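#help-structures
NK: newbie question, is this the right format to request a structure? protein is Integrase catalytic domain-containing protein
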Amino acid sequence: MLTLAGNLHIYWPLDDDVTNASLEALFYPGRNKDNEERLMPDYPKIHRELAKKGVTLTLLWTEYCLEASAAGKKPYMSTQFNDNYHKWARITKATMRIQHKPGDEMEVDWAGATIDIYDEVTGEISPAYLFVAVLSCSLYVYAELCPNMKSDTFINCHVHAYTYFGGSTRLLIPDNLKAGITRNTLYDTLIPRAYKEMADHYNTAIVPARVKHPDDKPNAEGSVKYATTWILAALRNYHFFSIEEAKTAVSEKLEELNLRPFKKRLGNRRSAFEDEEREFMLPLPKAPYEPAVWSTAKVQNDYLISDGINK
């Protein structure tokens, strides 16, 4: 290298206007020409295509070769093509965005903190609970304040989340809470009938997180913390005298949360959803799911049974 530099009359120290690119052109004059003859891959497009079901880098490289041939240019070899993509993804912080296919998963959980609802007459305080759903790809969040965490409330929150997102996902990942999972062991998973019917109605499969494995739903865990800060903590100094009043305030904070800019990449949760995930959501059924209540009854001697509803 020193001999080559001497032959080219390149000596240290270099002038201030000498760049790495100009040095590369002097030392390797044929390299730039070779690069000009190659078709530069469209890495943002490759990244978007990888998010689609069944798409791999091998398939995209094959399509890239055909595109290069049609343009009369040379393609990169597959190894260099893959390496260059991974370098691009690493530099642009894009790798975190293709770990989950768009429209593939919705993670759900309850926040640990609550909001106090004050009775105007007695001053009695009742807790209200925050349901959180998040799409694993775009991290788009839905949150709803509820008076309880009963099974029918839990299921209705899913219905409202799907309506908010404008579609459903292939998989639904809840925690092992009693409202959603009756039993979850290594050999057996038992899901309440109404919850399973709701999932079937939206053409989604319930895959509960393993017991004591929060990493099975990291986005829900992170979004619950995020919602706790930007919704519950942000409303800590407010006094609500009705659940409806508190729900309205939570809805307003939810929109602010989804519009907060990302720290490590451009955009926000709303823009990421609109640009990367909305088109991949499963279509909603014609009518939303209506929770059913299941019970058993003993037939009496007069062959009559009661439906348990007070007239």
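mod (FA): yep, format's fine, and the tokens are attached above. Residues 243-259 form the longest helix (17 residues).
NK: thank you!
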